[in-house]
Design a protein that fits this description.
Layout (H helix, E strand, L loop, with lengths): L1 E7 L7 H9 L4 E7 L4 H10 L12 H8 L8 E5 L5 H10 L3 E4 L7 H14 L3 E3 L7 H11 L17 H8 L11 H4 L4 H17 L5 E7 L10 E11 L2 E4 L11 H26 L12 H19 L5 E2 L1
Parallel strand pairs: 1-2, 1-3, 3-4, 4-5
Antiparallel strand pairs: 6-7, 6-9, 7-8
Helix pairs in contact: 1-10, 4-5, 5-11, 6-9, 9-11
Length: 325
Amino acid sequence: MLKFGMIGGGLGSYIGKFHRWGAMLDDSAELVCGCFSRSMDKNRATAEAYHLPDTSRVYADFREMADKESTREDGIDFVSIMTASDTHYEIAKCFLEHGIHVICDKPLALRTEEAEELARIAEECGLLFCITYSYTGYALIRQAREMIRAGAIGDILHVRVQHPEDWVISGAVDGKVDTSAWRFQPKKVGSSLCANDLGTHAEQMVTQFTGLHVKRVLAMMDTYPRDLPLDTNVNVLMDFGRRRNRYALGIPDCDWTRVRQRHLRHRHRAFSNIYRSFCNVLSDRKAGRENTTDTFPTVEDGVLGVRFVEACVRSHTAGGVWMDV
C-alpha cells in the first residue's frame, strides 16, 4: 500500500476529511505523517484522532516534513496539500524539489507564472501531480465523459454550466458573513473569489467532459454585499474554438451545481475516485508498468485553471471584452 502525508486538514478542517477519506476509503493509501496545523497542540491532537501510527512523524512545518520524509527508506510516496490557496505554490514546489509526488487542492497557484513553474518542475522531475477538482470524480460525470468522447450524443454545439451557491448572500442577509475569513482576503485567494472558488470547477468540468480547452473568455463580475473586497458572482462566455468542426460556445453563470447535503454525503466517494486513479497510476509506475486507463486532473489542468481566472479578471476590468486565456 502507498504511504502519504497531509499538509493541513487538521481537526475542524472542512476539506481535510474528504482528502483523508478519499485516500483511505478503498485502501488506496495509508496516512503515516503530517503537518496538520501551525499549532503543535492541534497538530498532535489531529495525529491522535487520525490514529497516526508513529507520532514522531508529526512535523512542525512542511519544510521539515519534506526534508525528513524524502530521506527515510519508508518515506511517503506522495503528499496531499489542503491549505489556504496562497500557500499551495511554495508547499508544492518544496515537495517536488524533494522528489515527492503531489496531490493539491485547487487553485494550483495564484499566478500563472507560479503555476507554470510547478508544471515545469513536475515534468523535469518525472513526478505525478494531481489537482483535486472534486466534481470530476463523480461516477456520473465520468460516465458522461466516456459517452461524449465515444460520440454517443453527437457533435457538441453548445455547453451551459452553472454552480449556484448562496452561502455568502445568505450570510449577508443574516448578518453572519465573516469578512475576516481567509476566503475574503485578496492576498489569500488572489484576484477573484468566485471565479477561483467555483468558476474553475465549471471550466474544468467542461474540459473533462469534452476534452476541449478554453481559448478566450468574456466575463462580468459583481459583488454582494457591496462592501466585500472580492467578487461573489461571475458570468462568463467561454470560447473553445474549433475542433473537427465542433463548437462549444458560451457558458453563462460561471458555476456548476448547488451544493447541498446530498452532495456532501457523496463527496467522499468523488474524492475516493480521484485518489484511486492517482494511486493506481503511481503504483503501476513504481512497478514499471504503464497505466493508460486511470485519469485524474493534472498539473496542466491546474495551470489552465489559473490562466482562466486571470483572463476573467482582465476581461471584467477591461469592461467585459474578449480576452485570450
